TrEMBL record:
InterPro entries from the UniProt entry: INTS15
Protein name: Integrator complex subunit 15 isoform X1
Region described as Disordered: spans on this chain: 401-455
Record PANTHER family: INTEGRATOR COMPLEX SUBUNIT 15
Record field: compositional bias (Low complexity): 426-441
Annotated source species: Chanos chanos
Length: 471
């Protein structure tokens, strides 16, 4: 390996980087083919070559690093794009991409992240699907802090620096839905609405809502494609963007009201941003509820209903704590409607998530979590019903009952029927007996029997989940 390094030192930076890339392709490709199972791992000497000649972290501090010019860096990005596009074996592509951009915890990681952001941004611009698929896997396996950094680069490139190129990012969903699913998860982790700067830009919000409204199943792609038993990396992104999008929908009325308050305090109003986004958040809230219903089907098919909590109770607790703090910041007299809207959305999401098995918790846990929140009628109804426990008996899909109490019969009593209300002395009639002739009226035809009707045929509890999102 020392001979290869000495050879690379005599080359210009671009040529040396190309040579290292092709060396990786040969060594890892042959190792993958011979191993048959499991991804091959780069040896330490090859990792050193990658860091020194692609990411320009010198092995010897006494040797000045060879820096690429902007033109050379662009040429290297084009070489990488061409390589990943032309490589026909997806396994080899994934191994090479991981070898290049897996973070090692050393000083080369900053260079890796800079190169990765530029490569993925270029792949979006020229629609290089193989790179986007590799980037989706990288987002799934990397720590959320690095994923958020990549998301920020892409948002800056396509929403801030060059807004006219935003449609390019918007149209990438049809080319690589899996990448877009992971990107949504990353941007919801980036924009957590903790401050005015952490509120998603209107163009980004519009793009996400457009993607999810057109195909809500997009949010479940990572979960559906993940093999059973796969363990997530410690500190990684959530397996679905549902928790992040739920945070957006619930906190949006409060966050924008806080922004208006700060703007008025600073002497300039800025109300149009929140007003223009209200309908988008309403559409997003509806889509999230629809995805919960789709999720129930998937969990049932995989025999995971009641055994896999897609929404973690700890994440829900954090959201409620954030909502509580936001409510305390606002004046309830001036923001009462916004507070109730946020709580209505939270209550609906909790109700649907529990009814579909996406959230598993006890009623006591739910009441404890909601104890610091202001009163809300819908939230009180959700807390009053029993919630599936994570201990003891297995999950039952109908465990979370409907609110309406059952009736003994769907038919009203005969003695209150409006057509017979004037006959006070009329005896009680059996629902299946024929009426006797009543003088001076003409005889009545007998009742048809109701054997085909179930005692609860028209009871609301027999219907599917009937609630609609609160706007």
């Amino acid at each position: 390996m020392s001979d290869i390094r000495h050879s690379l030192l005599r080359r210009d930076p671009l040529s040396a980087a190309k040579e290292v890339l092709y060396h990786m392709d040969i060594s890892l490709g042959s190792a993958l083919q011979s191993s048959g199972a499991g991804a091959p791992v780069l040896d330490k000497s090859t990792i050193d070559l990658v860091e020194e000649f692609i990411f320009h972290v010198p092995k010897d501090r006494s040797v000045p690093p060879k820096r690429m010019s902007c033109v050379q860096e662009l040429q290297l990005l084009e070489i990488m794009c061409s390589y990943f596009q032309e490589q026909s074996k997806d396994a080899v592509r994934q191994v090479i991409f991981s070898a290049l951009f897996s973070l090692q915890g050393n000083k080369a990681d900053e260079s890796r992240m800079a190169m990765l952001g530029k490569l993925v941004s270029m792949a979006i611009a020229v629609c290089r699907v193989p790179i986007l698929e590799c980037a989706a896997t990288w987002l799934q396996r990397s720590h959320s802090a690095w994923c958020v950094r990549l998301a920020r680069v892409l948002v800056d490139d396509y929403c801030t620096l060059v807004p006219s190129s935003f449609s390019t990012l918007q149209n990438i969903c049809s080319a690589s839905p899996r990448f877009c699913c992971q990107l949504i998860t990353a941007v919801t982790a980036l924009y957590d609405m903790s401050s005015e700067d952490m509120t998603p830009p209107p163009s980004l919000l519009e793009m996400v809502v457009g993607w999810v409204t057109e195909d809500p199943r997009l949010l479940l792609l990572t979960l559906i494609n993940m093999p059973l038993g796969t363990s997530l990396p410690l500190g990684g992104l959530d397996v679905t963007p549902l928790m992040g999008l739920l945070r957006w929908c619930v906190k949006a009325p409060l966050a924008y009201q806080r922004g208006r308050k700060l703007s008025l305090t600073n002497g300039h109003g800025e109300q149009e941003k929140g007003v223009g986004c209200e309908e988008l958040y309403s559409k997003l809230h509806l889509s999230v509820l629809q995805v919960f219903l789709m999720l129930q089907v998937h969990l049932t098919e995989q025999n995971l209903l009641g055994r896999l909590a897609v929404l973690q109770l700890e994440s829900v607790a954090v959201l409620m704590e954030e909502v509580s703090r936001l409510v305390e910041e606002l004046n309830p007299l001036h923001a009462a409607s916004h507070i109730q809207l946020a709580l209505d959305r939270l209550a609906q999401a909790l109700q649907v998530a529990m009814a579909t098995g996406a959230l598993l918790c006890t009623r006591e846990d739910l009441r404890t979590l909601c104890s610091r929140l202001p009163h809300n009628n819908l939230l009180q109804l959700v807390m009053s019903g029993p919630v599936q426990s994570t201990h003891g008996a297995p999950y039952q899909s109908n465990f979370y009952p409907h609110i309406h109490p059952p009736r003994s019969s769907p038919l009203p009593p005969h003695n209150t029927h409006p057509a017979l209300s004037t006959h006070n002395t009329h005896p009680a009639l059996s629902p299946h007996a024929a009426h006797p002739a009543l003088s001076p009226h003409r005889p009545l035809t007998p009742h048809a029997t109701h054997s085909s009707l179930s005692p609860h045929a028209f009871h609301p509890a027999a219907m599917t989940f009937p609630y609609r999102p609160i706007r």
